[in-house]
Amino acid sequence: MKENIVKNKSVAFALRVVKAYQFLSENKKEFVLSKQMLRSGTAIGALIMEAEHAQSKADFINKMNISLKEANETLYWLMLLKEGSYIEEKVFMSIHKDCEELVKLLASIVKTSKNEYGKK
Fold it and tell me: Is the pLDDT of residue 9 over 80?
């Protein structure tokens, strides 16, 4: 079976998000923004997993597009956490880079899938 890069990266990213949430809630006593980041950051991979068993190509595109939206939302929560001085610049740059990579991968998958679906 072919390696699913976006799936693997989303799982690794979700684990980072969970650890970040644990740190923020336990050490910084920040619960609102970090919970939003946790929800959107883990939803990325969950939607990718759902897309693996989509009912149709249109369903696949929809799930991947929602995953893309969740990744983009996660970027927002990360920015707020950094601007609110809850996470350090170095940590922010690392996790933000990983999230941006997911955004780019998902955007490419959605675009390619839409183009292929439109040709049928």
Answer: yes
